[in-house]
Amino acid sequence: MAAHRDRQIGELLDEAQRCGRCAAASDRLLREALDRRVGTELVRPRPRLYARTSYWNGLPRRSREEHILRGLAALHPDWTFCSASAALLHGLPVSYRQLKSAHILDPASHTSCAGVTRHRQRSTQPSPARARGVRVTPLTGTIVDCLLALNFKEGLAVADAALSRLRMSVPELDALLAEKGRRRPGVRQARKTAQHADARSESGGESMARAVMIENGFMPPELQVPIENPDRPGWPWRTDFYWLLPDGTTVAGELDGGEKYVNPNMTHGRDALQVLRDERIRESQLTLAVDRVMRFTFADVIDERRLVALLERFGIPRIG
């Protein structure tokens, strides 16, 4: 009996890993057997969801959140995920703070319980789409829902991505919000956020940093400005932020995200040490092309007092 249960659990976990989700256990006896292994062999990120500890520890944070949502979808195939959960599955930059609960549509309620936030389903709600194999609200509706719910800093990340993903202009995004957000709470803030959207932003962190700059009245930077690469003419560097100050001083701003050292899509086969070396070379060449290079981290964006102090030290003027 024990050998059969071990084999059953192994097959369940193997299948879940192949599908990129947490293993979902609806059978009570199987769930009890899995629970006995939590803390040694397994982790339990949510009730009735399991993964091997070694496998889970090797996943980036975003992948963990996707595994949880796919696991919940396996337990509840009739659920339609919305808001921040749908945004994650659509590949939009969404704050992990918004993912403490799974967000689902419910025809009757707008309430929260442990691990789940239920959003009232409107009578005009369009048919669900699928993203990462999961039922979700369509991309356009997800963007509108998020912008109506999020503050300026988190919302700007979604608005920037919306321009890029939907291939639309700021006036078109504003028109979409005016139409889909009519008489809904948060539409005024959403439309204010949309006015500052810029499709050139390449990450949620960059968008949130720019939101801090805007809210604190700093001179807005240019984004993704090409800087000549002397080692490879015709293949310029691009700096995240660029200021030409009133006195002619040039400042490059670089958001140093740790992901660039470990994400295979960004390392291109290089190990972390080689990526670090290449970054040092890049920065040394940037210093030849601009007067100052201001580096900061996502932690500085979250604790915006640190980013504000850094902007002041580098002489970025306020315009308001």
What can you see in these coordinates?
Mean pLDDT is about 90; it is low at about 260-270. This protein folds into three domains: about 1-60, no CATH class; about 85-195, no CATH class; about 205-315, Trna Endonuclease, Chain: A, domain 1. The longest helix has 18 residues, at about 1-20. The chain has a four-stranded mixed beta sheet, with helices on both faces. Strands 1-3-2 form a three-stranded antiparallel beta sheet. With about 325 residues, the protein is α+β, with helices and mostly antiparallel strands. The chain starts with a helix and ends in a 7-residue tail after the last helix. Helix 5 crosses helix 6, helix 6 (about 140-150) packs across helix 9 and helix 7 (about 150-165) crosses helix 9. The protein is built from 14 helices and twelve strands. The protein has helices at about 1-20, 30-35, 55, 60-75, 85-90, 140-150, 150-165, 170-180, 185-195, 205-215, 265, 270-290, 300, 305-315, and strands at about 25, 40-45, 50, 100-105, 110-115, 115-120, 130, 135, 220-225, 235-245, 250-255, 290-295. A hairpin with a 2-residue loop joins strand 7 and strand 8 (about 135).
Which spans of ≥5 residues are poorly predicted at pLDDT below 50?
258-272
Average pLDDT figure: 89
Strand residue content:
15-25%
- Overall tally of domains: 3
N-C termini distance: 73 Å
| Secondary-structure element pattern, one letter each | HEHEEHHHEEEEEHHHHHEEEHHEHH
